[in-house]
TrEMBL record:
It comes from Endomicrobium proavitum. Keywords: Signal. This is DUF192 domain-containing protein. Residues 1-19 form the signal peptide. The keyword Nuclease does not apply. Pfam families: DUF192 (PF02643). InterPro entries: DUF192 (IPR003795), Saro_0823-like_sf (IPR038695). PROSITE patterns: PROKAR_LIPOPROTEIN.
Length: 161
């Protein structure tokens, strides 16, 4: 009986900790603005990410840039959905990290630019599961930081607004 009680207690504590991280992430995502820099922890790595929130900024993303800002770019969406990204006007390859609440749900590695491709011929990238947050990193960073489905994600703070 004690073992069952202890198991239930530990499970409850773990669930509460996960809910706290998820709620904290939602609060930060609501407060961040376009061009904010967020400090996040992803799969144990501390990263500084350039924030994209407005519809215009989401459409543009990394298109037309020569390099990735800071350690990467983070996109927030209002609720988990079957998102789709493309590499329109991209100049370099990226890794796309798909997140729901506080866990990585899918990783797309080494998404390649398609220079000169018409919009209807561009490859569409989507996660295996619904996501509410997307992070774009330089190609190879998912392997470098050991990011995989199930990896933890926490927003630590907004560095600037």
């Amino acid at each position: 009986m004690k073992k069952i009680f202890l198991t239930m207690l530990l499970f409850s504590i773990a669930a509460a900790a996960c809910a706290d991280t998820s709620n904290k992430n939602k609060t930060f995502s609501r407060n961040a603005q376009d061009n904010s820099i967020l400090e996040v922890k992803l799969a144990g790595a501390n990263l500084k990410l350039f924030t994209v929130k407005s519809p215009e900024a989401k459409r543009k993303g990394l298109s037309g840039r020569d390099t990735i800002p800071n350690d990467g770019m983070i996109f927030f969406f209002d609720y988990p959905s079957p998102l789709a990204f493309w590499m329109k006007d991209m100049k370099f390859a990226i890794d796309i990290i798909w997140i729901n609440a506080d866990k990585v749900v899918s990783v797309t590695k080494n998404a390649q630019p398609q220079p000169g491709a018409k919009d209807d011929k561009l490859k569409i990238y989507s996660p295996a599961f619904y996501a509410d947050t997307v992070i774009e990193l330089s190609a190879g960073d998912a392997d470098k930081y050991n990011i995989e489905a199930g990896s933890a994600f926490t927003i630590r703070r907004i560095i600037n607004d």
